């Protein structure tokens, strides 16, 4: 049975459980929350060693084939272009459609989230390289360490060959382990979907956030169903958009229902290899970079949400240059959200509210009841970007095996 079908069946069972079972009590919700968190931890369990050893081999093989510069440029260019595209889509969406105002809350907070660039850089390069392997949520330190080791393996010394053979074997081993965990998640998605449905129902209950959710859904259909397929058809030789969408079905479900970009990554790596035929040298290099840096979904959702907050506070039209400033700020912030696989959108919102002020410093509280849902949509957009983006990189660097559909 195809992986996407297993996930779909699991999601359907979770939806049915949320609608039928009495899960309104605090004890039932606490138990469901604990089980869901445990399942997400299990789903991430094998990701770090897979990313580490695959990253080493990816750099080594690309250096051998003189592909490292080309793949790096295509990956960086595609990440930046996709983030610009999603930011522009968010900008146009909120200009074309004016969402209803959200009732102002009187809630106040004393602590506001922010971005500590100094700490961000220090986490990438800790005092000891081995500390990089202890960052469970932030993947960049371990991946950067893998790139350094991969470059070291390219030195022409005979005594390095056993290390390369061992690393290659470990890469294959953890890929197989990760495959087992992605299969197990087809059962765990029942609980994840059940929890997500309860929160989704809660967000829809008042009707306040329904227009926002409809807009994000339409944007995703337009992006994944029209814009990305047209780009793939135009940019790629013998591009197959329907094949990419079929490969992306399972990662899309994992991203949407968990709201976790790290949880979706092993599913993306597996389907990228098995369905799209992306070779390991690109598979182990591009997918992690897309997961860490290609957070255009966060920019898109943050732009739409922040403008909705602004319009809820004021009946005056937003100046065009203010809109550009909001879009550019969200675009830049999306590149430093890699250490937040969950909750990056809400953090971006708090920063935007703090930056633009004008009495909206706590405006993000208006969207707190829907924080999980908007985070899920951000992860969904980012999963689509990763699947299409990595296919574009692999196709244009001739790193696709034409084996099976």
Query: Mean of residue pLDDT?
Result: 88
Shape: globular
**Pairing-aware structural class of the strands and helices?**
mainly alpha
Portion in beta strands = under 5%
Order of helices and strands: HHHHHHHHHHHHHHH
Q: Please give the largest β-sheet.
A: none
Counted beta strands: 0
Distance from N terminus to C terminus (CA atoms, Å) equals 15 Å
Q: Uncertain spans, ≥5 residues at pLDDT below 50?
A: none
The quaternary structure here is: single chain
Kindly state the percentage of residues in helix.
Answer: over 70%
Count of helices? 15
CA radius of gyration is: 21 Å
Task: Name a few traits of the molecule.
405 residues, mainly alpha
What order do the helices and strands come in, and which of them pair?
Elements: H1 3-20, H2 26-44, H3 47-64, H4 68-96, H5 117-124, H6 140-153, H7 161-205, H8 210-235, H9 241-258, H10 261-274, H11 280-293, H12 296-313, H13 320-333, H14 344-356, H15 371-396
Helix pairs in contact: 1-7, 1-9, 2-7, 3-6, 3-7, 3-11, 4-11, 4-12, 4-13, 4-15, 8-15, 9-10, 9-15, 10-11, 10-15, 11-15, 12-13, 12-14, 12-15
What is shown here, in short?
This protein has 405 residues and is an all-alpha fold. It is built from 15 helices and no strands. The mean pLDDT is 88.
């Amino acid at each position: 049975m195809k992986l996407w079908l297993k996930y779909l069946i699991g999601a359907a069972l979770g939806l049915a459980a949320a609608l039928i079972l009495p899960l309104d009590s605090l004890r039932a919700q606490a138990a469901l929350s604990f089980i869901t968190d445990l399942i997400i931890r299990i789903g991430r369990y094998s990701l770090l060693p897979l990313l580490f050893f695959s990253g080493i081999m990816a750099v080594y093989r690309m250096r051998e084939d003189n592909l490292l510069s080309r793949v790096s440029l295509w990956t960086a260019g595609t990440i930046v272009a996709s983030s610009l595209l999603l930011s522009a889509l968010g900008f146009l969406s909120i200009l074309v459609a004016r969402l209803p105002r959200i009732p102002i809350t009187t809630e106040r907070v004393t602590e506001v989230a922010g971005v500590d660039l100094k700490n961000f850089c220090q986490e990438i390069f800790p005092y000891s390289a081995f500390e990089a392997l202890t960052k469970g949520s932030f993947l960049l330190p371990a991946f950067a360490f893998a790139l350094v080791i991969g470059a070291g393996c390219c030195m022409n010394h005979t005594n390095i060959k056993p290390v390369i053979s061992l690393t290659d074997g470990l890469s294959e081993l953890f890929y197989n382990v990760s495959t087992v965990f992605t299969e197990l998640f087809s059962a765990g998605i029942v609980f994840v979907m059940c929890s997500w449905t309860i929160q989704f129902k809660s967000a829809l209950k008042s009707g306040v956030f329904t227009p926002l959710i409809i807009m994000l859904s339409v944007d995703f259909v337009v992006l994944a169903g029209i814009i990305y397929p047209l780009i793939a058809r135009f940019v790629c030789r013998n591009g197959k958009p329907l094949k990419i969408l079929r490969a992306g079905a399972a990662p899309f479900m994992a991203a949407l229902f968990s709201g976790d970009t790290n949880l979706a990554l092993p599913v993306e790596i597996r389907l990228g290899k098995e369905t799209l035929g992306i070779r390991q040298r690109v598979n182990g290099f591009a997918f992690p970079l897309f997961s860490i840096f290609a957070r255009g979904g966060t920019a898109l959702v943050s732009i739409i949400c922040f403008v909705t907050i602004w319009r809820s506070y004021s009946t005056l039209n937003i100046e065009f240059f203010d809109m550009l400033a909001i879009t550019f700020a969200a675009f830049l912030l999306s590149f430093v959200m890699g250490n937040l696989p969950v909750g990056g959108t809400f953090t971006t919102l708090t920063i935007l509210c703090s930056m633009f002020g004008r009495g909206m410093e706590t405006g993000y509280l208006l969207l707190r009841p829907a924080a999980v849902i908007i985070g899920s949509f951000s992860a969904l957009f980012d999963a689509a970007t990763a699947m299409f983006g990595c296919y574009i990189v692999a196709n244009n660097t001739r790193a696709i095996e034409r084996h099976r559909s």
